[in-house]
Amino acid sequence: MQLTQEHRALYESVKSFVEQELNPHVADWERAGIWPAHEVLRKMGALGLLGITKPSAYGGQGLDYSYQLMFAQALGHCRCGGVPMGIGVQTDMATPALARFGSHELRKEYLEPAIRGEQVVSIAVSEAGAGSDVAGIKTTARRDGGDYVINGSKMWITNGTQSDWACTLVNTSEGKPHLNKSLIIVPLDARGVERQTKLDKLGMRSSDTAMIFFDEVRVPVRNLIGQEGAGFTYQMLQFQEERLFGAASGIDGLVNLIDETIAYTGQRQAFGQSLLDNQYVHFRLAELRTEVEALRALTYQTTEEYLRGEQSPLQIAMLASMCKLKVGRVSREVTDACLQFWGGQGFMWDNPAARAYRDTRLISIGGGADEVMLGIIAKAMNILPRKKKPAA
């Protein structure tokens, strides 16, 4: 992927925003267990950062996904994982289907204010019994006159206590599980919505995560995104960009953690020399940086192939799944090794290695677990186990 001056300018702009507007407050937000989403997103919206790939007719910049990748990578300079995740939900999870398939009226009502940062949004797909298994969701929406009536619950909803609305995946019929689902915009101040449960997480502490209940919640039929029954397909389509976003947003944070660990081990003395003087330590740090650069190369290559449009959807899904798998695995390796080199200091709650260790563990779970990524990759390689013939 060739980076232009425009790519670099966007990257520097986002990095500057992170360093000036986010990092000075991260410690407070981590302790509070929530970030001021409306305040931060309004600032980002004023800078044009929330609609980089969205249509210009609705306030976006209309750029290709390589620019969004630079946005995601620059967010990696944030000194926690929770805030970039909350921002990524706004830009790359809750709004892509609306931008692509929503009616003009729906995009005017909901997409435009999200791009301006005037509304905070969530993606409501996962349920207590259906995380990576999207087809297994149980929440329903039945037609009643001009409304859908929604019943069920959603689990692990990022931005969930602050969101103005959620792009919600529901079952709109009793047909086949891949053909009976729809995406519906649900205002979260609607009667019957309950979302007081803020979940207490291992990491991503500055990101508020809610369990949301729907009890006979009425929303107008016009809040349907695209076609009824196409929700599963829409959700699968946007997973590729979501996984690229996750991979890109991990790169610079890992580089920064390695650099901080180099600085710390260089000044920490043990047995008459700095820790960094030990061959094992500096060789291991060199190895870790090599792994991060391999992640960068794979992510850039996949983005280029995605934009070129010459590969089949299955091949793109395979590459994006490799990126998602790689960032999770590399993050676990880097943060664990760096924490070890910080010694007892690394076991302190506010230590950068400790925070990264906690935050990045989610990567191998959320947005499709590692095992799901491996299944997609194996399918593209045509090496899935063959079904056994029934015994005679």
UniProtKB/TrEMBL annotation:
Residues 229-381 form the Acyl-CoA dehydrogenase/oxidase C-terminal domain. One of its GO terms (biological process) is fatty acid beta-oxidation using acyl-CoA dehydrogenase. Residues 4-118 form the Acyl-CoA dehydrogenase/oxidase N-terminal domain. Its cofactor is FAD. Residues 123-217 form the Acyl-CoA oxidase/dehydrogenase middle domain. One of its GO terms (molecular function) is acyl-CoA dehydrogenase activity. One of its GO terms (cellular component) is cytoplasm. Pfam families: Acyl-CoA_dh_1, Acyl-CoA_dh_M, Acyl-CoA_dh_N. Keywords: FAD, Flavoprotein, Oxidoreductase. Belongs to the acyl-CoA dehydrogenase family. This is Citronellyl-CoA dehydrogenase. The lineage of its organism: Bacteria, Pseudomonadati, Pseudomonadota, Gammaproteobacteria, Nevskiales.
